[in-house]
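W.,

You were right to be curious about this one. When I first looked at the sequence I had no strong expectations either way, so I just let the prediction run and decided to look at it fresh. Below is the sequence, 501 residues in total, followed by the output.
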Amino acid sequence: MDIYTKKRRWKFALFTSAMVIVAASLWYTNFLVNEFARDERTDIRIWADAIQRKAKLVNYTDEFFEQIRQEEQKRAEVLAGAYKTIGDKNYTGDLTFFVDIIKGNKTIPVVLTDEKGNITNYVNYELPGDTLSVFTRELRREFSRYPPIEINYYEDKSNYLYYKESKIYTELRRVLNDLVQSFFSEVVTNSASVPVIVTDSSMSKVIAFGNIDSSLMQDPQLVAQTIHNMRDDNKPIQLELPGQGKAIIFYEDSFLLTQFQFFPFIQIGIIGLFFVIAYFLFSSARKAEQNRVWVGMSKETAHQIGTPLSSIMAWLELLKMKGIKDEAIDEMEKDIERLETITDRFSKIGSAAKMEKRDIVETISESVSYFKSRSSKKIKYILNYPKDKKIEAPINKHLFEWVVENLFKNAIDAMAGNGNITIDIMDEPSQVVIDFTDSGKGIPRSHQKSVFNPGYTSKKRGWGLGLTLSQRIIRDYHRGKIFVKNSIPGEGTTFRIVLKK
């Protein structure tokens, strides 16, 4: 099992483990959210029930106060009747009973004025100052609930008796109003932190609201939309309140619960973002380390080759000086030139390569000529390109030839020394496309993405570095692309190089 097969299995195992952890975390967090939501909705139901009970209490109090008001009104009418009877000059009966009624009045405010509006007497009421004053417009308005009683005491002389509801009822009515306001206050500032809107029966006028941004309540359209959403979330509570008529309470889940429901997805997003950032950091560090290793190995290789190459060149010059002429010496010179080219290639790794615009067809043709004389006669090289124009692209000749040679070597090995190598060169407006097609054994689909990984090889002997170097040369130095265009096991493989013009 090669390192990349193990790597894929480890990746799959780690990915599966991560998915299990994420799923378990999501499930448990969702479980907590549901528990929290259930508890909060229980609180909301308790709150809603409390509102119903409080509303019933307010309504009962209102009914009770109404009964008191009616009783107080009857007392006021009896008192008014007593005053009227006493003031009636035509009444000849016993006035003791009526006098007792008047004396027994300890709660109903009474003000007696003459025909000019001057106050002559008052009971159960505090006037400003120590002296009797004029029955002003403000006092008349305050005593306007009941019509005044005219008391004719002498011929055309009359007094006017004004009275109003008792102090007890006034205090009770204030308590009732405070109770209603307290009710609304408790609704909108609820302990469950539930957003609440209280409207009238038309659902257009907002009576009170709580736990909602006040700026939102300034926009009628947003208010209407919020009420609509609340009505969809929870059934509104309808109440009949004294002095307010019919009121409708709309509410929804608390802001905390709404946020908490999205927490699992936010959690997964943060974890995912952390893993992505960590992956890119480690990947960048690993690539940087690999680049340093590549550069170091390449320069060391160039140095190691350079030493014996210099000696071989010296021995070859010595043979020439002795006048030895042989075909083998000519071939040795070609191989020395080849070794010099290889040394130059390795020395350029890690350095800024000089790019020159060159004829792609001529460069590839030279490589074809070199390999024809050094490969099996059963291998046929086919070069297809447009004959009517020159195809140029900026390349580094030595490095680009290295890529072509690696592709040729792989093709020769894949065909076991017998088959066709077809090179198709296509000139496009902004790029040059080169396809290298062999008739070898092909590459399985599962391995096509791994062929450029360091160490990947299908041969028993080999380092698996040729295609890796080729990819680095095309991608990093030529800013181009190299990839497996297609491959069919048993039929062959096509590698494609794309160079920018």
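Here's what jumped out at me. The CA atoms of residues 319 and 397 lie 31 Å apart. And, maybe more interesting for your project: The chain has three domains: 33-168, 187-255, 354-500.

Coffee later to discuss?

I.
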